[in-house]
């Protein structure tokens, strides 16, 4: 069973790396994709690679390791990077929703609203917000004294499983974790729902072709948002209690969602597919010229 899981999750991880690197390649190599939407999509793809890399390689290695161990500082590093890139992804997805709102509801002012300076600022704030969140989360957890028990009932170092090893009262830390992680996830998700509600209402004034294109783009984004936010809210917007479902839910938002993101955005996005065709045709033409 462990060998089967090793092969399965290794395949998932290769799809995550390949799919997201392909999106980055398309966005950077095709000038037609140098727009705010694809700027944030490239940020999302980079975050997905780093986010899944915080947990997946160790989990995959553990499937074929007799001793599944991690050092103290390895655990600290894993928790910090996991929450850093995870929270950054939350903010990037929220900014992408704002970009879609500006494009659909404010088309005449879109170029001014989502200028290069504004896009850079929003992306920078997303990364800085993720860094601040992760620093607070990791500091709150590892400032506690830990007991002799060293068995983490999880496949990576997350807040709730690590807090169970603490020798001190964790009530205050649990409340702060809910305020830090849970409320960020819930708050951003509510903002996203509100923005999509406004977009859907405004689409009534659009043409049939405009509605179809907007719904296709927003549908892709909302699918990604739902698959990421709902598991995060389930895990972090509650006290430090564990359920049998927790590990399966964690696998979903740490491995499955980063794998689905490039598939959703490439299969449902005509611009990305056209860019892939142009790059492929360019490579084919170069090979033919070399042969000639």
From TrEMBL:
Q: Which UniProt keywords apply?
A: Cell membrane, G-protein coupled receptor, Membrane, Olfaction, Receptor, Sensory transduction, Transducer, Transmembrane, Transmembrane helix
Chief localization: membrane
Membrane topology type, per the record? Multi-pass membrane protein
Give the matching SUPFAM superfamilies: Family A G protein-coupled receptor-like (SSF81321)
Segments crossing the lipid bilayer: 6-28, 80-98, 110-136, 182-203, 215-237, 249-267
GO cellular component terms listed in the entry, alphabetical order? plasma membrane
Give coiled-coil spans as residue ranges. none
GO molecular function annotations of the record: G protein-coupled receptor activity; olfactory receptor activity
Which residues does the UniProt record annotate as the domain G-protein coupled receptors family 1 profile? 19-265
What is this protein's function? Putative odorant or sperm cell receptor.
Family under the similarity heading = Belongs to the G-protein coupled receptor 1 family.
- Asked whether the UniProt record includes Transmembrane helix among its keywords, one would answer yes
Record-linked InterPro entries: GPCR_Rhodpsn, GPCR_Rhodpsn_7TM, Olfact_rcpt, Olfactory_Receptors
**An example Gene Ontology biological process:** detection of chemical stimulus involved in sensory perception of smell
Gene3D superfamilies found in the cross-reference section: Rhodopsin 7-helix transmembrane proteins
Provide an example Pfam family for this protein: 7tm_4
Q: What is this protein called?
A: Olfactory receptor
Q: Domain of life here? A: Eukaryota
